[in-house]
Amino acid sequence: MAGPNLTVPQFPAANSQQRISPSPSAGRNKVALKPGRSLMDWIRLGRSGQDLTGVGGKVLEVSVDELAKHSRPEDSWIALRGKVYNITPYLEFHPAGIDELMRGAGKDGTQLFDEVHKWVNAESMLEKCFVGRLKVVPPTSRRGSATSRGSTRSNTLSPNGSITPLNLKPPSGPQPPRQDWFQNAKSVTIVVYTKWQAMKHEFVTIDLNDRKLSINIFLETHTYRMHVELEKAIIPDYNVKVHKDNGKVEIIMPKSVTDEQWQTLGTNQSDHGTLVKTTEREVSYRHCTIQSIQEVSYDTKLLCVQLPEGTRMCVPLGYHVHIKHNISGMELARSYTVVLPSLRSSEQDILVEQGRVFYLMIKIYPDGALTPWIGGLSVGSTLEVSDIDGNFQSTQLEKSTQLILMAAGTGFTPMVRLLYQTLVEEQDSKRHVKLMFFNKTKKDILWKDQVDELQSKNDR
Ligand SMILES: Cc1cc2nc3c(=O)[nH]c(=O)nc-3n(C[C@H](O)[C@H](O)[C@H](O)COP(=O)(O)OP(=O)(O)OC[C@H]3O[C@@H](n4cnc5c(N)ncnc54)[C@H](O)[C@@H]3O)c2cc1C
Ligand code: HEM
């Protein structure tokens, strides 16, 4: 296979409508890649045997000064988590464009990378571009430095007493919320005082593996994590209550053995009590099972995905998850918006509300990188699903009297829950909805019958 021409044209072209936003905070920012620059093409290039390191495959020790010399599009390196990669051949494959990727060129781009997409597995995707390790400069003086943070030191929680978490990270910025626990004969309750009035039960994800309990609470920009090896066993039939007035969250968990008295909640794990920027948290994946598959159209499927028994994950409106899989030796992760089983109230699934299953509507591209694999899955197959991701604030909706939705193709998926919430759940709402749904042909229109039905039944 001929490799792509690695000379880099000006991108976007001077007269192009494509514009690169100056920062990730400016919103999502995809560009049209040139033909032959798809992810699948990148995988093929990686397998072609061509030297993508630009240094003949030698493993170098790269100083910061050396790294800085490689900051032009025709010769660019980036350091990520202590490893240096030659990103020159990848520039034209980067889904957000060359300029965006060049922001990390010639330097340690780890923080920038994590701010934008920590869940992308660069180590796997850039494996063939590995130049060497970034030389660590020892600090001139270590005197007075604190002992290592985030160690595996653990402490215990006394009954009914709140604790001060050991790992307060970051040291400056918002403080972790206060927490407490108590018990009665039948259950154990963990209380977290988030003080966030927009708090919702969907922002609480719970995972239980044996007796290891991890709770992630999304607090807008930050995620608070509790991670405890419980003293005794519980039944993973959680009840999460949120007090809207003060943001208090109660997680009620039935004891496996009723009347058993717990002395402590359990032993804290190393990352217990941490409050980290959501973009910087470690993305964790769960092994989920496909419970059902429905054909939505000739190329799009609706998957009902069952979470592991110990997990309770309700996905907030407008949020998505990542699905990862190893394709031809490269670990790829793709994003998918969580939808509903239907736009009809009679076809809802109680297990969605309980956070035990969720639905995805996925278009299969025969020549895509990940979706051909998804298209080949059957009921009972497993897939790895990340934590929830996103930043949509549904409070924006509350004030609006008109909702104008514009979607193309599977861009319809974020509209599903908006339509359902506004037109089916909020019966008393006065909000009017317009949906402009762009598709190549009539047979590409997803759930056309359901949208038509919604329209005919609702004068808004
Ligand atoms: C937040 C978010 C939410 C999403 N939600 C959904 C969802 O709910 N449902 C859904 O189906 N998708 C959704 N997506 C899209 C999804 O993440 C994947 O991009 C999609 O599934 C395609 O993945 P793929 O790896 O199979 O295809 P890709 O390998 O990305 O290819 C897709 C198609 O584009 C073509 N192509 C790629 N590059 C080029 C190029 N340079 N020139 C010409 N053609 C090219 C390929 O040939 C193929 O036909 C979402 C994306 C985001 C970011
Ligand atoms: C450090 C500098 C980088 C910046 C500023 C940057 C920026 C971006 C932005 C803004 C997006 C669009 C995100 C979205 O639409 O939600 C994106 C997507 C992407 N980037 Fe980067 N990027 C950088 C480095 C990298 C590197 C080194 C890789 C190597 C593998 C990479 C791989 C990807 C991939 C695979 C996507 C598509 C994600 C998806 O499917 O939604 N990026 N990048």
Largest sheet: 6 strands, antiparallel
The overall average pLDDT, rounded, is: 87
- Give the class-level CATH name of the largest domain: Alpha Beta
Summing up helix and strand content along with how strands pair, one would put the structural category as alpha+beta
- Determine the N-to-C terminus distance: 55 Å
User: pLDDT under 50 segments (min length 5)?
Assistant: 1-26, 141-172
CATH architecture of the largest domain: Roll
Question: What does it look like?
Answer:
The chain starts with 38 loop residues before the first helix and ends with a helix. Residues 1-26 and 141-172 have low confidence and may be disordered. The protein is globular. The relative contact order is 0.10. It folds into 4 domains: 24-134, Roll (Flavocytochrome B2, Chain A, domain 1), CATH 3.10.120.10; 178-280, Immunoglobulin-like; 285-386, Beta Barrel (Elongation Factor Tu (Ef-tu), domain 3); 395-457, 3-Layer(aba) Sandwich (Rossmann fold), CATH 3.40.50.80. Strands 8, 9, 10, 13, 14 and 17 form a 6-stranded antiparallel beta sheet that branches. A 6-stranded antiparallel barrel has the order 15-16-20-19-18-21. With 460 residues, it is α+β, with helices and mostly antiparallel strands. The protein has helices at residues 39-47, 64-68, 98-102, 110-117, 122-125, 350-353, 371-375, 395-398, 413-425, 448-457, and strands at 60-62, 71-72, 75-80, 83-86, 130-134, 178-183, 187-193, 204-209, 212-219, 222-230, 239-243, 248-254, 266-268, 274-277, 285-295, 300-306, 312-313, 320-327, 330-339, 357-363, 382-386, 402-408, 432-438. The structure holds flavin-adenine dinucleotide and protoporphyrin IX containing FE (HEM).
